[in-house]
Amino acid sequence: MTQTIHPEIESKARAQQAKLRRRARINALIRYFVLSAVGLMMLYPLIWLIGASFKTNSEIFTNPGFLPKNPTIQGYIDGWKTSTPYTFARFFWNTFLIIAPKVIGTAISATAVAYGFARFEFPGKKILFATLIATLLLPNVVTRIPQYLLFRDIGWLDSFLPLWVPSALAGDAFFVFMLVQFLRAIPRDMEEAARVDGANSFQTLIFIVVPLLTPALISVCLFQFMWSMNDFLGPLIYISSVEKYPVSLALKLSIDTTEAFEWNRILAMSVLAITPALVVFFMAQKYFIEGISSGGVKG
Length: 299
What we know:
Family: Belongs to the binding-protein-dependent transport system permease family.
Protein name: Oligogalacturonide transport system permease protein
InterPro entries: MetI-like, MetI-like_sf
Subcellular location: Cell membrane
Keywords: Cell membrane, Membrane, Transmembrane, Transmembrane helix, Transport
Number of strands: 0
């Protein structure tokens, strides 16, 4: 009797397993299809931008697809020259001169301030940290006019200093908060061992804490790099000389409102403008994701 029941049970179990596998494959297929469709919708503007940069100005309006019929790099050649005495190489160099000090200053200052908040007790610490968090809720436009008046009185207008100094003094509260959260997830054992061996607070920060903060610091640098690369309002307010314009303002120069302008030049230079941020992000995305995910864990 048992010999006749077991095969039936086994066949039913196999049928049930096969049904579950089919259902899992169908669910996975639907899930991947939806994700691919949403991803394509999000990437299509970027794909179209790249394809349109190889079109002529007339084809951009006659051919809505992203594949050019007769690809040409004339937009890149003409757009690189610009309508000013300077080429886009000068504007990329200006962008580098703005971004490099901002990234370095942000990494150093935010690390020092975050280390103080996370590891030391001092009078007014809670009030100062609450004030720091409160500034995250303050819109940037609220501080634009006071900052402009301050930098005008100091004599820093039409220079890179208004863009450098706030970052060098930990003016970006988001990065300080992010590093504080990351530091709270790091055990203090190694720091205490370093102090037992005679290391002071500065040596402990440099040789023990900073190596452990590497993923978070890479995330901070990536954020600052991308935000500074895309910053338009800051340079527009403080910089007035064309020879000091970054790429974001140089793209605006390509749009002449008094006459018809060549969209293929603007799109071609837009592709070049977003390329550094994309390259840097994909090269460091492993550390970027690790820094973001680790920063959200509180020890």
